Amino acid sequence: MGLVMATILATDGHSVEATLPSEPSWQEAMKRAIRSGHDLCKRLAIAPALSSSQAEADFPVFVPLEYVNRMRKGDPDDPLLRQVASSHDETLRSDVALLDPVGDLAAQLGGGVLQKYERRVLLITTGACAVHCRYCFRRHFPYETAPKGKTGWSRSLRLIEQDRSIDEVILSGGDPLTLADESLSWLIRQIGAIGHVQRIRIHTRVPVVIPQRVCESLLKWVRESAKPLFFVMHFNHAQEIDHSVAKSLRALVSAGATVLNQAVLLRGINDSVEAQKQLCLKLINLQVLPYYLHQLDLVQGALHYQVTDQAGAKIVEALRAQLPGYGVPKLVRELAGQQSKTPL
Ligand SMILES: *Cc1c(COP(=O)(O)O)cnc(C)c1O
Ligand code: SF4
């Protein structure tokens, strides 16, 4: 951790020179992230029996300390911990679970471009994420085949340029905000220069786990984007939003971005009216609009997080009675081969 000299006021009103710990850069935060269930449990004073090395061999644990610091010590049921700690349940195999539950593979146009819906294309920019969520539907996606860097993206950009029906480009992954700002700023400029593209969207969870990712060099390309920028965050629980996360969300809104949130309904984590209500309230108070509440994609290794459609519908109905209309997310499921996400 870097140290900075700072002038602080002593209690007697005199200023003194002091050495304060400074916040690590987001790149530094990625480097020092926790990479095993064992270390995660140790840090939180929880018995390591919670984690499973068999599950981690398939999908490694990756959790930044900034996120771990928002977890409750000694509580194996902590809603943040439960999203990222490996478990024996992941090794159970089921007939209903698939490796590609949402039909991503069938939707590939080439060059890392996926198109499932009219007017919108999704660009797989990278396979990297800043956190590994155990329920992730892309945990089996063949990222090796996605384009890498400017040369790879140039091919994707040509595909978008050639199809005038495309008016929105969605940067996804992996997580686009794990890329350097230099690359992102280039990509946003290239996409922004395509006449028929009207909007650019970025799906990300990096600011949730490493809020300092919303740094000055990111805000610069956000402010300078030629086309309206939408960020779709991925918060699942109110406890994920602390002071520094709130500060980052405010900075994005001030820079002119529209910020939305999509959550995944997860058993034992946020499958209650109270948990969803607290999340939605915290979001709208920060001008972040709850967009989707996703039903879990039935991916191999994640079925223990499943909540029934009836239970999900009941939660959203209760939210509708208690929150303003713009504060209620749409409950949806993504089904392969449909024209949009399927409302429930
Ligand atoms: C979810 C998704 C979109 C965006 O859908 P919206 O309903 O517009 O949010 C676009 N492309 C793909 C491949 C998707 O999975
Ligand atoms: S950040 Fe998103 S893509 Fe990455 S593991 Fe989590 S849910 Fe999956």
Task: Give a brief description.
By secondary structure, the chain is of the alpha/beta class. Helix content is 31%, strand content 18%.
Main sheet, how many strands, which sense, barrel? 10 strands, mixed
How many beta-strand elements?
Answer: 12
Structural class: alpha/beta
Question: Percent of residues in beta strands?
Answer: 15-25%
The ordered string of helix (H) and strand (E) elements is EEHHHHHEEEHEHEHHEHEHEHEE
CATH-defined fold name of the largest domain:
TIM Barrel
Poorly predicted regions: 1-13
Report on this model:
The protein is α/β, with parallel strands linked by helices and 344 residues long. It has 2 domains: 3-91, no CATH class; 105-343, TIM Barrel (Alpha-Beta Barrel). The chain has helices at residues 26-31, 37-43, 53-58, 65-68, 81-84, 149-162, 181-192, 206-209, 216-224, 243-254, 273-285, 309-322; strands at residues 3-9, 15-21, 108-110, 113-117, 120-124, 168-172, 199-203, 229-233, 258-264, 289-294, 330-333, 342-343. Helix 6 (149-162) packs parallel to helix 7 and helix 7 packs parallel to helix 9 (216-224). The longest helix is centred in the middle third of the chain and has 14 residues, at 149-162. The radius of gyration is 21 Å and the shape is globular. The N and C termini lie far apart (47 Å). The model is unreliable at 1-13 (pLDDT under 50). Bound molecules: pyridoxal-5'-phosphate and iron/sulfur cluster. Pyridoxal-5'-phosphate binds next to strand 4 and strand 5. Iron/sulfur cluster (SF4) binds next to loops.
